[in-house]
UniProtKB/TrEMBL annotation:
Keywords: Signal. PANTHER family: BLL7424 PROTEIN, DUF1501 DOMAIN-CONTAINING PROTEIN. It comes from Undibacterium oligocarboniphilum. Coiled coil: none annotated. This is DUF1501 domain-containing protein.
Length: 413
């Protein structure tokens, strides 16, 4: 088989995903103008225990259900950071306290998917497609959002940080995937003029691939340029930063400041499936939450003035059982907590229809019930932050939410 035919066959089988480097891939596009409003979605894969993130410490049922992993009251050693006299924030998230006090951080408790699955794979798929219970949805809601926004698409209007292009950004509109860590902004073999020219010639006469390849190359050059503008000034000759979310979040903020075309960003973090040895104020969960909080604080600071026009959403596929298990952990549950950060968020509040943790209020007698459909939160972000109309909202969210609590997540709207 000739090399040209082999490469074309490879791309046919991969859904028109073209490599621009070992760390950057671009999906083929149809064309759709960046506005000043930004959205960053952070997915906590593995089902984070929302009851030990935003803790109902004043609910007596909380302490009784978790004798070994319940967090202590405010003021005690490793106790929660009081939010409103009923809820408290896990102490490992202390870096976020100033955002709460500035009313730029809010939570929506007892939120999640109305689908009853306890499968990580299915639940994540439903949250990324925003069509709970429907497995054959061909695209992700962030990709549909991209096609609904006004104007024309650039290769970096929507970016994902991670190993592969995520479900949430799959679809017709172009999206760019960048590896996490410093490798995502390193030069690669295609940056060598002779190699880049050879690949350009390979695709230039193919009507199907030429545009996608050029968009992918443009995305890579745009990311490289945006990254180096800052790193060359503040790091030792552009030396890579250490791995981890705090560094990735700082890098994302740098890219967004240097490239005004970036409007939608997706990042995913794993390690939240705490079936054993979860811990309370310290331990496994605390060790996961600390860099998450640090990274979110970095992101809000490094974005600078852009933070006023940015909404950051943190979500997970489902919550965990109210009662701890015999291994000092928690099992797959249902309701959870969504986080929202941004300069225009009506923060300093825990939103949602909270019904407590008494057994008769729990889903199947074991889980926090979902009283706010996660899509109703996403729809409010799209409507009030991105100014989508009813027709556009229907395009992004083809199934209307079944559970909706009435609240306003934004100031001056």
């Amino acid at each position: 088989m000739k090399r040209r035919h082999f490469l074309h066959t490879l791309m046919m089988g991969s859904g028109l995903l073209l490599p621009v480097s070992p760390t950057i891939w671009a999906a083929s596009s149809n064309t759709a103008v960046p506005s000043g409003k930004k959205v960053i979605v952070i997915m906590l894969r593995g089902a984070v225990d929302g009851l030990n993130v935003v803790v109902p410490y004043a609910d007596r049922d909380y302490q009784q259900a978790r004798p070994g992993i319940a967090l202590k009251a405010p003021g005690q050693d490793n106790g929660v950071l009081d939010l409103d006299g009923y809820f408290g924030l896990h102490p490992a998230l202390a870096d976020l306290r100033s955002l709460w006090d500035e009313k730029k951080l809010a939570f929506v408790h007892a939120s999640g998917s109305p689908d009853i699955t306890r499968s990580h794979f299915d639940a994540q798929d439903y949250m990324e497609s925003a069509t709970p219970g429907k497995k054959n949805t061909p695209d992700g809601w962030l990709n549909r959002l991209l096609t609904s926004l006004p104007g024309s698409t650039t290769p970096t209007r929507a970016i994902s940080i991670g190993a592969t292009m995520p479900r949430i950004l799959s679809g017709q509109a172009i999206a760019t995937n960048i590896a996490s860590g410093a490798a995502g902004t390193r030069a690669n073999v295609l940056d060598q003029p002779k190699v880049g020219s050879a690949f350009s010639q390979l695709y230039e006469n193919n009507s199907r691939y030429a545009k996608t390849y050029q968009e992918a190359r443009s995305a890579h050059q745009e990311v490289m340029s945006a990254a180096m503008q800052n790193e060359q000034q503040i790091a030792d000759g552009g030396a890579p930063l250490p791995n981890g979310f705090p560094d990735d979040s700082t890098r994302v903020a740098t890219l967004m400041r240097n490239d005004p075309n970036i409007q939608l960003v997706f990042m995913a973090l794993g390690g939240w499936d705490t079936h054993a040895n979860q811990g309370a104020g310290t331990g496994q969960l605390a060790n996961r939450l600390a860099p998450l909080g640090q990274g979110l604080a970095n992101l809000s600071k490094r974005l600078g003035p852009l933070f006023d026009d940015t909404t950051i959403i943190v979500m997970s596929e489902f919550g965990r059982t109210v009662r701890q298990n015999g291994n000092g952990g928690t099992d797959h549950g249902h309701g959870n907590v969504m986080w929202l950060l941004g300069g225009k968020i009506a923060g300093g509040k825990v939103y949602g229809d909270w019904r407590g943790l008494a057994r008769d209020q729990l889903y199947e007698g074991r889980d926090l019930a979902v009283s706010t459909d996660f899509r109703s939160v996403l729809m409010q972000v799209c409507e009030q932050h991105l100014a989508l109309d009813d027709r556009q909202l229907q395009q992004v969210f083809p199934q209307l939410p079944s559970l909706h609590s009435r609240f306003n997540l934004y100031r001056n709207t």
